Amino acid sequence: VQLQASGGGLVQTGGSLRLSCAASGSIGSINDMGWYRQAPGKQRELVAVITYGGTSNYGDPVKGRFTISRDNVKRTVYLQMNTLKPEDTAVYYCKVRRTLGGDYWGKGTLVTVSS
Question: Which residues contact 107 (CB under 8 A, 6 or more apart)?
Answer without folding.
Answer: 3, 5, 93
